[in-house]
Amino acid sequence: MIRALTVANTLNIGAWVRGVLSAGISGGASAITGGLVVSGLEPENFNFHAGKFWELVGSLFMVNAVVSIGKFLQNHPLPDEATPEGGA
């Protein structure tokens, strides 16, 4: 148990969490583009005042965020080791 805590203290968990959140926001932001494209193709059903539009954007946001987070976790399954402050 002590060994696990010692190893955990050497990991840069904050940067890893920021990376996960960043990937989710970046991926979800593409939902805006998808919503605008669908709104342009079918404005009578998917305009800004229709509930269907916001359901579509919300669904796209969630799916794209999950895919982007999955890609991030594929490349960074665990946090990297922290570098000593002031050193290379």
Could you characterize what this model shows?
- This protein has 88 residues and is mainly α.
- The protein has a domain at 20-75.
- Helix content is 70%, strand content 0%.
- The chain is built from three helices and no strands.
- Helix 2 runs antiparallel to helix 3 (51-75).
- The longest helix has 29 residues, at 13-41.
- The radius of gyration is 19 Å and the shape is rod-shaped.
- The two termini are 30 Å apart.
- The mean pLDDT is 85.
Bulk shape? rod-shaped
Q: Report mean pLDDT, rounded to a whole number.
A: 85
Radius of gyration: 19 Å
Share of helix among residues? over 70%
Q: Say what oligomer this is.
A: single chain
Low-confidence stretches: none
Q: Decide which structural class fits the backbone.
A: mainly alpha
The major β-sheet equals:
none
- What letter string, H or E per element, gives the SSE order? HHH
Q: Please count the helical segments.
A: 3
Strand content: under 5%
End-to-end separation: 30 Å
List how many beta strands DSSP finds.
Answer: 0
